Amino acid sequence: MKKLKNENALVKEALRVVMEDAVRRKIVEFEPTDSASDKLQYAYRLLVHDEKIIPLPNDQVSLPAIRHRLATWILRELPDDHPLKK
Fold first, then answer.
1. Are 74 and 13 in contact (CB under 8 A)?
2. With contact defined as beta carbons under 8 Å apart, do 52 and 73 qualify?
3. What share of the chain is helix, strand, coil (3-state, %, to 5)?
4. How many angstroms separate the first and last alpha carbons of the chain?
5. Is-contact 63 40, C-beta < 8 A?
6. d(CA 85, CA 75)
7. What is the pLDDT tens value at each position of the chain, 86 positions in all?
8. If residue 77 lies in a helix (H) or strand (E), which one and from where to where?
9. 85 and 78 in contact (C-beta within 8 Å)?
10. Which residues are within 8 A (CB) of 28 and not within 5 positions of it... i.e. 6 or more apart?
11. Rounded Cα–Cα distance for residues 46 and 54 (Å)
12. What are phi and psi of 53, to 5 degrees?
């Protein structure tokens, strides 16, 4: 798995988008005390549930793999002129 350029920023953007969507849909409320890993796992599971991404094989599920999967998903979702795509 090759690390993407701006992967950290892409993951932040993916989390922001998924969390806003989940709160808007009244699925969940995030607390300030929720850890980043919990938010990453929740975002990944929600995208899998919504069938927006293909789930990782069970033996490959890890935080780095989840971060990479979220980054590649948001990269496809962003408009072509978005600064994170450059």
1. yes
2. yes
3. 60, 0, 40
4. 20
5. yes
6. 7
7. 778 888 999 999 999 999 999 999 999 888 889 899 999 999 999 999 999 999 999 999 999 999 999 999 999 999 988 888 87
8. helix 63-77
9. yes
10. 22, 42
11. 11
12. -135, 155
Structure tokens at 81: 């002129």
| CA distances from residue 56 to 6, 8, 62 in whole angstroms, order as listed | 22, 20, 9
Cβ atoms of 80 and 67 within 8 Å: the answer is no
Identity at 16, one-letter amino acid code: R
Q: Whose structure tokens read 């033996």?
A: 59
Give 49-56's long-range contacts (Cβ < 8 A, gap of 24+). Answer: none
Q: Which tokens go with 5?
A: 């350029």
